[in-house]
Amino acid sequence: MQQERIIILDFGGQYKQLIARRVRECNVYCEIHPHTLKIEKIKEMNPMGIILTGGPASVYDGKSPTCSPELFELGIPVLGICYGSQLMAYRCGGQVKTAPVSEYGRTEVYIDEKSSLLLKDVECDRKASTVCWMSHTDYIAEIPEGFSVTAHTEHCPVAAMENSARRLYAVQFHPEVVHTQEGTKMLRNFVMDVCGCKGDWEMSSFAERTIEELRKKIGDRHVLLGLSGGVDSTVAAALLSRAIGSQLHCVFVDHGLMRKNEGDEVEAIFGPEGSFDLHFIRVNAQERFYRRLIGQTDPETKRKIIGEEFPRIFGTEAWKLKGKVRYLAQGTIYPDVVESGDGKTGDVIKSHHNVGGLPIELVRELGFDETPIEPLRMLFKDEVRRVGLELGIPRELVYRQPFPGPGLAVRIVGEITPYKVQIVQEADYIFREELHKAGADKGLGQYFAALSNMHSVGVMGDHRTYGLAVVLRAVITSDFMTAEAAEIPWNVLQTTMNRIINEVDGVNRVLYDITSKPPGTIELE
User: Fold this and answer.
1) CA neighbours within 13 Å on the CB side: how many for 442?
2) 343 band by pLDDT with thresholds 50, 70 and 90
3) Which of 26, 210, 393, 435 has the fewest CB atoms within 10 Å, measured from its CB?
4) Active-site residue flag, 365
5) Is 82 assigned a catalytic role?
């Protein structure tokens, strides 16, 4: 049990995970819970502070998510963000109305009370303003008794308010997003100065503590893990290996849609010659996936085929271990838990009908425990990587570029063929190699090569060609919810283009995608 804890109550806010990450960056443990969390449970958890997220509803709509007024009488510091600020005002006796002017995007916020603990040391320009990110159609028209206005905008008279005696704070803007220039400082002020947290939650002891907990839970029984080669399942495998050794069975299904050499790299780490004590099973299923993808051009159909085929192959291997394995394990991380509603009352963004990669019906038929082992369940991706380094996993594997579940299938527009897969693998390898050699990969959120379904005329060796076009993509992002195309040095792009055209058969044109997200997505499909 953590000594210091911040609770985030979710009212449908799209940035709830960002709030949690900002709190954890203060070395303070936090959890996201649905807004329906009972007051009794909150008291039992004894948090140092509570943060109310934003959301799309209006507080005066009787069907909107709400909370008990008692929440603001617990003596626990509360910070309301966007909808959370309006809810605080409404439940404490203020008034919320439809705003005469809605505010969206970057907005100048004028600080009225610099002595506020929440706004302490916030840097402002000569007009006492700072840039914040707004997204609201309602506004606080009248603050509750005992509150004071600490910031405003041209159109919003209450951009921030507080009742410092009751330790209740509210901001109409979103301090958790990078567009709010001083947002991280404001959240730190709340966590450290208002809530009084010391910031003593460290990742250094996580691995040791988790390994011991796994040993106690599993005992002498065996565990089966589907190993994808991604950082989450890789770190989960490493933790389990340290805990139970050869009682762990890892099945790596190579669907032939991974990046160049990745299948062999995974085997080198976890196979017989690797440094981890476990049973490694590699299933080379490339031909099986390719056959099922013949003639398929619709992105969702391709995803569905790959999603259906994996558990079938994994299930075949699981049958071989029936009677020996008790538990299934998976590399679930905290964003997965949040997006699936944690199986409770939160909004479900992604439904999970599997346990450890197998349909629940098959899990029951095999006699496996229906509750999976999830050692990374409460960690964000950056925290998972830190644990991986502590466990001795090579840095290049821990910081491997994010890779979609369907693999290169979503980086090949149109039908998937072995020939096209090879083109993307080679082009992607060249692009990543050139970026690394030039040091241009630092700070990039994601970068890769994809294959369009466009053929174009070219001239190579005095001959007319009609080849494929490779698309290069590199983005800068902190949360993968929004992204901007990276400005790759021109000479790096030229070198990459020359190498791809000269070294990759069938390609006579290279394009660079400068589309931001939104309106585009990071992947092509």
Assistant:
1) 4
2) very low
3) 210
4) no
5) yes
The Cα–Cα gap between 344 and 25 comes to 27
- Residue 523 annotated to the active site: no
Looking at residue 16, its pLDDT comes to 87
Judged by average pLDDT, the poorest of 301-305, 390-394, 427-431 is 390-394
Rg (the chain; Cα; Å): 26
Question: Which one is catalytic: 152, 174, 249, 255?
Answer: 174
- From the list 82, 92, 156, 197, the catalytic residue is 82
The CATH 3.40.50.620 domain(s) of the chain lie at 206-397
Q: Residue 356: its pLDDT value, please?
A: 54
CATH topology (fold) of 5-194: Rossmann fold (3.40.50)
| Closest C-alpha to 15, from 177, 171, 139 | 177
pLDDT per position as a tens digit, 308-328: 898 899 999 999 999 999 999
Write out pLDDT tens, residues 213-266: 999 999 999 999 998 888 899 999 999 999 999 999 999 999 999 999 988 988
Render 135-198 in DSSP notation, one character per residue.
EEEEEEEEPPTT-EEEEE-SS-S-SEEEETTTTEEEESS-TTSTTSTTHHHHHHIIIIIIS---
**Which part of the chain has CATH 3.30.300.10?**
410-513
Selecting among 176, 182, 426, 434, the annotated active-site residue is: 176
Task: Please tell me the pTM assigned to this model.
Answer: 0.72
Q: Which CATH class is domain 410-513?
A: alpha beta
Q: Integer distance in angstroms from the first to the last C-alpha of the chain?
A: 42
The pairing of strands 95-111 and 129-142 is antiparallel
Cα separation, 12 vs 53, in Å, equals 7
